[in-house]
């Protein structure tokens, strides 16, 4: 399914881990440079501004090709209008294939063709179905899942998550007012099920290439779960979708549940993040807490905004100050000391990397199949049998 050479994928993982080990002080700059020189990797762009520039260039190229096709097919008029977006989507997939064959990955040019293909799929289905949103969302989700599985395109996974959510929402709209009424609970259950499904897939993952995409989907579920029953979101959607007016002194149905959900879920996220040392969940919990405070401020202005901001800043400063004081001397667990390794998998191929840079060998190592073995005189030096 993956269009890229598996060896280049493995090499790309090794080079990323070499950069991490260099930042942690485990290998020298010369070793890192040698590893990067010896292992063929993708043509990619880590600089976001450069990547955006190539994306704009790729969009211009994609638009030029589509424009040339439009000039040739303009004489067909009505027939061409009905099939042009399908042709443009095909152009996008052909461009994505050619980019992949040239080892472009996360470069900007490939982004333009992949996202252009997905956009034209949506337009094409919209023209064919006369704007049937549910069908459009389904085919965009299917196309995004395909591009993620084949091109390992991270933005495609985000498009897939958004399209699946849109499919759920438009599907509930089909049931009329009943579907709109139970939409928050349906979205909450969907997010919870999808979260545990992606979590299970991550734990049982055999090919590490899909890890980042699954992690993105997993994090998206956390955000969707919180927003699905946030009081502000539910109340405003009730006004927008059902046309209900909340009169003074009254509230929406199940208001106490939505109030409790708005404040309990961020705390649960925070506790779970600290317990499992999940950095992404920790940041999501902070954002959820901030949005919960904004939810209250949106309806109940207890203090003037300048006073509220001042007091909030003082509280945050106090929490940060005392947290640093408590954690700065800790060497393990939750600590204020900087990580020498940004992620736990980075050390798995340390032995292969150091061997490669020391003896000039080009390793053929699978990232998840060669964990460091402690003891026995291996890399960790834990034994005394004399082996390196």
Describe this structure in words.
The chain crosses the membrane at residues 48-73, 79-100, 112-128, 134-152, 157-175, 181-197, 209-234, 254-271, 280-301, 307-327. Residues 367-388 are annotated as: Disordered. Keywords: Membrane, Transmembrane, Transmembrane helix. This is DUF2157 domain-containing protein. By secondary structure, this protein is mostly helical. The chain is 70% helix and 0% strand. The protein contains 15 helices and no strands. The two termini are 39 Å apart. Residues 343-348, 357-367 and 378-384 have low confidence and may be disordered.
Lay out the secondary structure.
Elements lengths: L5 H18 L5 H10 L9 H26 L4 H24 L7 H21 L3 H19 L2 H20 L2 H6 L1 H21 L7 H18 L2 H12 L12 H22 L2 H21 L5 H23 L22 H10 L29
Helix pairs in contact: 1-2, 2-15, 3-4, 3-5, 4-5, 5-6, 6-7, 7-10, 9-10, 10-13, 12-13
State the gist of this model.
The protein is mostly helical and 388 residues long. 70% of the residues lie in helices and 0% in strands.
Question: Which range does the strand content fall in?
Answer: under 5%
Termini gap: 39 Å
Report the biggest beta sheet as strand number plus sense, adding barrel if it closes: none
Question: Which consecutive residue ranges, at least 5 long each, have pLDDT under 50?
Answer: 343-348, 357-367, 378-384
What radius of gyration results from the CA coordinates?
26 Å
Helix content: 55-70%
Mean pLDDT: 80
Envelope shape: flat
The tally of strands reads 0
Helix count, DSSP H or I runs of 4 or more residues: 15
Structural class: mainly alpha
Element-by-element helix/strand order: HHHHHHHHHHHHHHH
Biased composition (Gly residues): 374-388
Region (Disordered): 367-388
Keywords: Membrane, Transmembrane, Transmembrane helix
Protein name: DUF2157 domain-containing protein
